[in-house]
Specification:
Helix content: under 10%
Oligomer: single chain
Order of helices and strands: EEEEEEE
Mean pLDDT: 92
Largest sheet: 5 strands, antiparallel
Radius of gyration: 12 Å
Number of domains: 1
Structural class: mainly beta
Number of strands: 7
Distance between the termini: 14 Å
Low-confidence stretches: none
Length: about 80
C-alpha cells in the first residue's frame, strides 16, 4: 500500500523528525512534533495553493501517552505506511 491509497482515519508513521514550521500557533516554533516511527492518523489530505501538483497530508501524531497532537501538515516524503 502507498500513501496515495490512504484516506482520512488511516494510520501513517513519521519517516523523519517533524518540527513545527510556525504554522501551529499554539506551540513554540521549531518544536519537535514527531520522531521517525511516531504513529499518526490522517485527518485530511489535499494540496496547497502554492504547490497544487504536490499532495499534503494533515496528520495528528501520538505523544508518549497516546494522545493525538495538533494537526500537522506533512509532505509525502515525511511519512511512511509501515513505520520504517
Amino acid at each position: 500500500m502507498n500513501l496515495e491509497q490512504l484516506e482520512k482515519g488511516d494510520t501513517v508513521f513519521a519517516s523523519c523528525h517533524i518540527y513545527n514550521d510556525g504554522s501551529i500557533p499554539s506551540i513554540p516554533e521549531t518544536a519537535l512534533l514527531a520522531i521517525p516511527g511516531t504513529r499518526g492518523t490522517i485527518v485530511e489530505k489535499g494540496h496547497l495553493e502554492e504547490t497544487p501538483e504536490r499532495e499534503i497530508y494533515l496528520v495528528r501524531f501520538e505523544d508518549d501517552k497516546l494522545n493525538l497532537g495538533p494537526p500537522t501538515g506533512c509532505w509525502p516524503e515525511e511519512l511512511s505506511v509501515d513505520g520504517k
